[in-house]
Amino acid sequence: MALWLELAQGVILPLKKKEFRYFFLAQSLSLLGRWVQTTAQRWLLYDLTGSTTYLGLLGALGSFPILLFSLPAGVLTDHLSKKKILVSAQLIGAFMAMLLALLTFAGLVRPWHILTLAFGLGIAVSLEFPVRNAFIYEIVGKQDLISALSLHSLAFNLSRFLGPALAGWLMGSLGFGFCFLFNALSYLPVAGIIPFIELKENQKQKSGNLLLSLKEGLIYALRHTRIRGILLLIVGVSVGLFPYAILLPALVREAYQGGGREFTFLMSANGLGALAGALFAGTLGRYISHRKLIYLAASSLTLLILGLSFSRNLYLAAGLLLAAGFFMVNIIMNANAYVQSLCEDEMRGRVLGLFSWCFLGLFPLGSLFWGFLAQRLGTPVTLRISTILAGLVILILGLRGLKNA
């Protein structure tokens, strides 16, 4: 009974706020659409090319806009209307997904179309990530921020579980085009609801030099020892560990001689683990130190991906990916909450922009490099190399964190 009460307090309570409830429901549908497209475009690209280099390029181009624009987006979050930025991001995403759907329906889709439109979707994500987190803060306030972030993370990871399964059904029954059409339509409820949300804290829009504001945010984060340490750990995890998801289609064929069904099965297992991780983070995880949980989860994820690189059994791989999803979401969820708890309100947008840059912006560099290496050494060997290097980074940062604690 106590666990159910904990679930209600840590996850369900933010839904009592009308504005957050509407935003959450619309955002949940959009997240589901995004994961349907992510799964479908990875498999379609690999089906067209048979190349892990192209998979790495897809991950790179999808995240490269975040490398370019997430820091400026964080500055804009502290200066401009969050509503207008969020609506613009939704409309950009809807346009890119609809264009890919039309090309696919017409039988004209080529690898360069997928890569180009993935870059366009990346622009939408780069605008959305720091603004959305600051937007949630303004809706619910500081007291309920952790619970609201837990609930949003739960929706994200439920989409990670359901999205690949839905994509697998759509790909097998209706075709790739319907996956992209579903994503395009899923953006519209969010764009329609945002203008009607009354913010709890309507901050005045700031004026001033945007480059100076960006510099102030960078100096603030780098001088703050604990924020800097967490951001460096996120860099190591994003570049060295997270590319396993991009290389998964190649691993399915190389290690398990599988196809689309096996790929979506493993993706769904990973998403189910992430869903469990989000539930844990929003309930029992709240009683564990953020720093300890972040380093424990990062160390565990390293061992799991290393084990995946040696596995030749599909069901063992599913179990490893299930656990990997659990620890992956606890890294990001706790790092997000911890960084926000440390930063001042006037720096929130810029710090979140930097967090987005470390988490998602540097991901393309790892994806591109590891995809290129996998084409030459094979996916399992590449995963071992990336995991060992990431593990060394995590170990060094963990030891430094204990020394400075």
From TrEMBL:
Major facilitator superfamily (MFS) profile domain location: 14-403
Topology of this chain in the membrane: Multi-pass membrane protein
Presence of keyword Signal: no
This protein's GO CC annotations: plasma membrane
CDD domains: MFS_MefA_like
Signal peptide residue numbers: none
GO molecular function: transmembrane transporter activity
Transmembrane annotation, as ranges: 57-76, 85-106, 112-131, 143-162, 174-197, 230-251, 263-281, 293-310, 316-339, 351-373, 385-402
Record SUPFAM superfamilies: MFS general substrate transporter
Gene3D superfamilies membership: MFS general substrate transporter like domains
Keyword set, alphabetical order: Cell membrane, Membrane, Transmembrane, Transmembrane helix, Transport
InterPro entries xrefs: MFS_dom (IPR020846), MFS_trans_sf (IPR036259), TM_effector (IPR010290)
Main location per the UniProt record: membrane
Subcellular locations according to the entry: Cell membrane
Listed PANTHER family: INTEGRAL MEMBRANE EFFLUX PROTEIN-RELATED, STAPHYLOFERRIN A TRANSPORTER
Name listed for the protein in its UniProt record: Putative transporter
